[in-house]
Amino acid sequence: MNRRHFLQSTLTAAAASALPQVRAATGRPAVGMDHFAVRGTGWKAPQIIEYAASLKLDAVFLSELGPFESFEDDYLKKLRAQIDAAGLKVYVGGRSVCKTSNVWEDKYGTPDELMALIIKIAKALGSPVARCVLGNSKDRITDGGIERHQEEVIKVFKAAKSRCEAEGLKISIENHSGDQQSEELRNLIEAAGKDYVGANIDPGNAVWALEDPMHNLEVLGPYVNCSSVRDSMIWETPEGAMVQWTAIGEGLVDFAAYSKRFAQLAPGVPLMIETISGFARPFPFLKEEFWKPYSKAPAASFAGWLAMMKKGHAIDPFKAPNKEAEVAYQKGELERSVKWLRDHA
């Protein structure tokens, strides 16, 4: 690389890295993408980074370990150079670190070993967080309820505390797939230690946990150090309701208000778009047995959820006829969401 190209790439990176701070100062959070939004592509990390840069995003979230072709230092150094040259802020994550969860996999060793690996990659790439999850809504109906699994996660976090402090980063745990409501996740973070553990907030998953996303944000906002966001549509059915996630601006969440409050509660944290659309999930809350996993559901939050439902309407599902159509659909959902946030948030 000659001097001219070096200076040009350095200035481009510096200008782009300053963008999140500029947006936050004006009450507009930075906009990024969670790689899972375009999961159908099968892209590895270099292609995901290139795509994020082509959309002129502020940040990219490699939220699972699948996109990494190697965990060796040389590979990670090349990725870091690509990220820096693109002027992107990067966030890194993995999946469940809870050995009692129904989604736990030992592909990367024990929960402690997986947590250590995520921290290593986060440090190498310059991510401020090492993100992980507990499990999903099925964990709520196991013996001991969600609290049993939270205890296991807290053990993993405490074992990783010194490593986090040494590397100068924090753990981020997501309210994932309806596993924990906002108060439950807040309690986990407080029990583990909010000085090194924060929340990867997801308003779509909040809806799956019977929460109004704005309520979820008010509870978790002060702890947020990462995000994965999408919109949601809820509509009434004879047994309760259906929920279908949507592109931002095409559901029921007031994302203009959400973004403004997000910037106030979590300044400097990007809104990472993670669109997962095309299918609906039933919530038969009029059946008594439905409430067994949610005996402690906050009434105020569910009231907000019901208010959203009353405004909603049914939307058609989408089933891709082939891989090319699936990729086009996922890109369209993401890119419309980026445009909406840039135009309205």
Describe the overall structure:
The chain is α/β, with parallel strands linked by helices and about 350 residues long. The protein has a single domain (about 25-345), classed as Divalent-metal-dependent TIM barrel enzymes (TIM Barrel), CATH 3.20.20. Helices cover about 45% and strands about 15% of the residues. The protein has 11 helices and 11 strands. The protein has helices at about 5-25, 45-55, 75-85, 110-125, 145-165, 180-190, 205-210, 215-220, 255-265, 300-310, 325-345, and strands spanning about 30-35, 60, 90-95, 130-135, 170-175, 195-200, 225, 230-235, 240-245, 270-275, 280-285. The chain has an 8-stranded parallel sheet with strand order 7-6-5-4-3-2-1-10. Helix 2 (about 45-55) links the parallel strand 1 (about 30-35) and strand 2. Helix 2 (about 45-55) runs parallel beside helix 3, helix 4 (about 110-125) packs across helix 5 (about 145-165) and helix 8 (about 215-220) packs parallel to helix 9. The longest helix has 23 residues, at about 5-25. The chain starts with a helix and ends with a helix. Mean pLDDT is about 95; it is low at about 1-15.
| CATH fold call | TIM Barrel
Number of domains: 1
Tally of strands = 11
Mean pLDDT: 93
The SS-based structural class is alpha/beta
- Series of H and E elements: HEHEHEHEHEHEHHEEEHEEHH
The count of helical stretches stands at 11
Radius of gyration from the alpha-carbon trace, in angstroms: 20 Å
